[in-house]
Specification:
Blueprint (H helix, E strand, L loop, with lengths): L5 H21 L3 H20 L3 H21 L4 H21 L2 H21 L4 H20 L3 H19 L9 H16 L3 H15 L10 H22 L6 H22 L18 H18 L6
Helix pairs in contact: 1-2, 2-3, 3-4, 4-5, 4-6, 5-6, 6-7, 7-8, 8-9, 8-10, 9-10, 10-11, 10-12, 11-12
Length: 312
């Protein structure tokens, strides 16, 4: 139902919550309380997809409170520890959207600390390592939203290393799309930190992984999102340099042309995504095709002003 009617899907998740709550009333076993918390998380996720971030936050907070109660009852329960870490990072993600920077940062650090402890106690557990990588990505995205690009870069680097390690045992599967997405986000963080050369290197590394997959008739959605954002990231770098190259008319024109070509490629990738969302696949934030279109128009305007033929 999520693909065709989010309101109807939300109704089913609410029915699930009602059933889980009835089960919890019949038994004090931890698994039934976890069921309620998980149902709250599903409802929150659906509200988030619908753009209702306040209700998403409210439901994530309900789930978080359940896990905080459970951890007091059974502090050594690994499933509870993991659930608490996930609840903290999910709530932190919504808090930063609402402007609560302090508590968002606190919850992010709590989540990372808990999940890193879980993985340290059983480093051979691949599922838990994957969960930590996903939480690390979410934490890095929060750091970017909080304008902490260096912290974000550090976290994306750790997530990238985790995904590469998890993927290394299966070389026949092609590149790790999660690692490629990390490289693209590392480029965004480096650009925000003012390191254009490093940013460009990361964007190109991401594209080296996903560009060969773009020729497929229906490429993985993660391939399209990563390519779209990496192309626009390179366009942004060229556009910024062009705006500071006005002493050399030829160089400035060439930079605007190169920026334009990156934005065109980005929009080509975006147009292959049926329902673009700012919440990209695998927990990665995504860019905005409307903003890419505006950036492309800026390039066209600059080229027209410089006397260059648009689209050249």
């Amino acid at each position: 139902m999520e693909a065709i009617d989010k309101t109807a899907a939300l109704g089913y998740y609410k029915k699930e919550l009602e059933i889980e709550q009835k089960l919890q009333q019949r038994s004090s076993e931890i698994r039934y309380a976890r069921g309620v918390a998980i149902a709250y998380n599903k409802i929150a996720t659906e509200y988030e997809k619908m753009g209702d971030y306040q209700r998403a936050l409210e439901n994530h907070l309900h789930g978080l409170e359940i896990y905080k109660d459970l951890i007091r009852v059974d502090p050594k329960n690994v499933l509870v520890q993991q659930g608490l870490a996930i609840a903290y990072i999910n709530t932190a993600t919504e808090l930063v959207k609402s402007g609560d920077r302090v508590q968002s940062l606190e919850f992010t650090k709590n989540s990372l600390e808990i999940m890193r402890g879980v993985v340290a106690s059983a480093p051979e557990n691949r599922r838990q390592r994957g969960t930590l990588a996903a939480i690390t990505v979410a934490g890095a995205s929060i750091f970017l939203r909080l304008d902490k690009p260096n912290d974000a870069l550090k976290e994306f680097e750790m997530a990238n290393a985790s995904y590469e390690s998890l993927h290394s045992a299966n070389t026949a599967a092609g590149p790790s799309l999660e690692a490629a997405a990390c490289r693209e986000k590392m480029g965004e963080a480096a650009a925000r930190a003012g390191n254009a050369n490093l940013a460009a290197a990361y964007f190109h590394q991401a594209l080296a992984a996903v560009e060969p997959l773009l020729s497929a008739r229906e490429p993985d959605i993660a391939v399209l999102y990563t390519a779209a954002d990496a192309y626009s990231g390179l366009g942004d770098l060229e556009r910024r340099e062009a705006s500071h190259a006005n002493r050399d008319g030829t160089k400035e024109r060439d930079l605007w042309l190169q920026a334009r070509s990156w934005y065109v490629k980005s929009l080509d990738a975006w147009h292959r995504i049926q329902r673009p969302s700012r919440d990209g696949p695998n927990g990665f934030d995504a860019g905005d095709p409307a903003q890419v279109a505006k950036s492309l128009q800026l390039c066209e305007n600059a080229l027209a002003k410089a006397g260059a033929r648009p689209g050249a």
